[in-house]
């Protein structure tokens, strides 16, 4: 395991004499004890099959997440950094300033680390004073938090967990938001998608499916004017947070084969908590290839963490606390179960989502633009995890401090060998109902086929974890929707029936997703260059992928391009872009057509609105968006006098 040294304070255990002699919580402390939330949802912990004790000497890594201080003041500060004329406009904090203003107080951190030390548990404190990574044995954590960590199984996945809620003395527990890692149940999914069905065409049909290159994105979304200004991402660092290893050589080969001249030796890989395996390596590969292609002279810092709750959190904490990359993206996620009260198999808890949200708030205060893929199961994100059919959205893109990247389909046409005409006449919300007739003709129109083929599209809808942020309030289309109802879930959401499509209208509440969209459909997808895991150059090949996992790194690269074009740091996108979208010269084109030609399997457009839950504010004119950021920067205000 590689040791994290940059911007991390090590707190060493007091000594081996304490190991094995550490008193239990009940006998060691007379002060009131208090429960601490775990990140894993109660349904997983309560419904899992527990079948044996873990070896008490098994080593574990656990993240203890401290609570922010002055959260309302932090929200105000973030808003000022993106409000022209405000005293703090684009006056971003560094990591140490953030820690001093909003991180946990040193005495609160000390209380936790000293408490852990009593049980022989060592800890590392990240520079923001929000994340404490603790390392110890099963026996030590059992005693420290009065739990009983056992082997468990849920939904076919083996892991370790404790049914008991962790507890600690009140003076310790009061300042802890959540503990991650006492259970290592985690199932983050790469949001990259291959074409599940090969479309066999009838005769010569050259217009699709599409296999696109960076130059196609540059043309379609009007990026070229930035290159004409001499912008290439110079002076910028792109951050990629990921949960799988990759071959950096594949990215260099991709850029070379695409004729893109890039900065040499630009990729830096940081293995966080020992790094990860190769499961999902194509996701990391495409993240680096796509973002780096759009900002060819930028540096790229890749933070690879293990696919666990602490691994994901620590990868983010490392990237944000390093504060080198002023734009960071992620293309991994889990479903946020939309109707928590009526769904038994919830995987996450509100505290879990808030763990990431705190880090995103730190990033916003530091002027880092954050992007996350909105999901690839359309309006039904929970069909991926945990496998239910309610309307739902994706975490961590649900955070109000992240720009959620949604998906569209570009125009293409063909006639299949089964005689079905596929026709996408203009850019639309990505939802595979336009392929349903073809899927039907292949015999997939049954419950098994539905789950595997029919529920794909750009993620969107309403968060149940986060309220509607101020920047979305008052925007036409927010918290109201037009939808196409074509699926009827059972009362417990474990099955679904296909119904005759009909238009419905309604209202929603919570953070609306996504924020902005670009092409993500695998059938109008992008080329990726990959070789065998850990064997660069072996069996090298081109593949075509889609998914909102493309849009997230693409927005990342485009931000580096914008920052280099105007020698600025645009920071947190969302309050700015929602204001831009309400202006007459909006840099976004809303996709507002109503019906089956523009839906994400449920949500569709509404004529005259600025926003819809299928594609957010719509698709960007990147050059115009860059101009809006630049002109906003040029507006007079206190800091420009």
Automatic annotation (TrEMBL):
A biological-process GO annotation: proteolysis
PROSITE patterns according to UniProt: SEDOLISIN (PS51695)
Cleavable signal peptide: 1-28
Keywords: Calcium, Hydrolase, Metal-binding, Protease, Serine protease, Signal, Zymogen
Keyword Zinc-finger listed: no
Membrane-crossing segments per the record: none
SMART domains membership: Pro-kuma_activ
Domain spans labelled Peptidase S53: 211-632
MF (Gene Ontology): peptidase activity
PANTHER family reported in the protein's UniProt record: PROTEASE S8 TRIPEPTIDYL PEPTIDASE I CLN2 (PTHR14218), TRIPEPTIDYL-PEPTIDASE 1 (PTHR14218:SF15)
Protein name, per record: Subtilase family serine protease
């Amino acid at each position: 395991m590689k040791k994290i040294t940059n911007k991390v304070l090590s707190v060493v255990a007091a000594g081996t004499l304490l190991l094995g002699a550490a008193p239990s919580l009940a006998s060691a402390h007379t002060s009131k004890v208090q429960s601490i939330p775990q990140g894993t949802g109660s349904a997983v912990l309560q419904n899992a099959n527990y079948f044996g004790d873990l070896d008490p000497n098994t080593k574990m890594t656990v993240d203890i997440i401290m609570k922010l201080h002055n959260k309302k003041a932090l929200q105000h500060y973030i808003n000022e950094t993106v409000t022209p004329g405000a005293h703090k406009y684009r006056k971003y904090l560094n990591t140490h300033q953030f820690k001093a203003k909003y991180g946990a107080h040193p005495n609160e951190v000390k209380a936790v680390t000293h408490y852990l030390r009593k049980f022989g548990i060592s800890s590392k404190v990240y520079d923001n004073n929000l994340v404490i990574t603790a390392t110890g044995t099963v026996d030590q954590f059992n005693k420290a938090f009065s739990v009983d960590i056992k082997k468990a199984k849920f939904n076919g996945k083996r892991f370790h967990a404790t049914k008991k809620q962790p507890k600690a003395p009140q003076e310790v527990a009061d300042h802890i938001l959540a503990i991650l890692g006492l259970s290592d149940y985690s199932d983050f999914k790469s949001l990259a998608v291959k074409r599940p069905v090969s479309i066999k065409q009838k005769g010569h049909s050259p217009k699709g499916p599409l296999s696109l290159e960076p130059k196609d994105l540059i043309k379609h979304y009007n990026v070229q004017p930035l290159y004409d200004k001499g912008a290439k991402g110079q002076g910028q660092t792109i951050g990629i947070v990921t949960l799988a290893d990759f071959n950096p050589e594949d990215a260099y080969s991709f850029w070379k084969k695409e004729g893109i001249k890039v900065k040499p030796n630009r990729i830096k890989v940081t293995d966080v908590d020992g790094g990860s395996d190769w499961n999902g390596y194509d996701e990391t590969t495409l993240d680096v290839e796509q973002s780096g292609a759009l900002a060819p002279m930028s540096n790229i810092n890749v933070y690879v963490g293990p696919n666990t709750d602490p691994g994901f959190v620590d990868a983010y904490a490392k990237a944000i606390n390093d504060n080198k990359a002023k734009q960071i993206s992620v293309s991994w996620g889990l479903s946020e179960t939309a109707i928590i009260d009526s769904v038994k198999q919830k995987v996450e808890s509100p505290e879990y989502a808030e763990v990431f949200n705190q880090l995103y708030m730190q990033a916003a205060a530091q002027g880092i633009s954050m992007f996350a893929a909105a999901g690839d199961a359309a309006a039904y994100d929970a069909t991926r995890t945990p496998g239910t059919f309610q309307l739902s959205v994706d975490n961590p893109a649900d955070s109000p401090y992240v720009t959620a990247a949604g998906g569209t389909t570009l125009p293409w046409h063909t006639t299949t060998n089964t005689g079905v005409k596929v026709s996408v006449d203009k850019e639309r919300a990505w939802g595979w109902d336009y392929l349903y007739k073809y899927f039907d003709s292949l015999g997939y129109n049954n419950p098994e086929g539905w789950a595997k083929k029919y529920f794909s599209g750009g993620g969107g809808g309403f968060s149940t974890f986060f309220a509607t942020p101020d920047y979305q309030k008052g925007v036409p289309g927010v918290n109201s929707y037009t939808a196409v109802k074509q699926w009827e879930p059972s009362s417990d959401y474990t099955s679904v029936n296909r119904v005759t499509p009909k238009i419905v209208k309604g209202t929603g509440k919570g953070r609306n997703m996504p924020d902005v969209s670009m092409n993500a459909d695998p059938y109008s997808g992008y080329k990726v260059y990959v070789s065998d895991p850990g064997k660069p150059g072996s069996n090298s090949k081109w593949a075509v992928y889609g998914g909102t996992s493309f849009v997230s790194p693409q927005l990342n690269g485009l931000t580096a391009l914008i920052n280099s074009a105007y020698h600025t740091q645009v920071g947190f996108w969302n309050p700015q872009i929602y204001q831009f979208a309400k202006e007459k010269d909006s840099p976004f084109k809303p996709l507002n057509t109503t019906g089956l030609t523009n839906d994400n399997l449920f949500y569709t457009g509404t004529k005259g609105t600025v926003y819809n839950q299928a594609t957010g504010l719509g698709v960007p004119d990147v050059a115009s968006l860059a101009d809006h950021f630049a002109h906003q920067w040029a507006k007079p205000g206190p800091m420009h006098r």
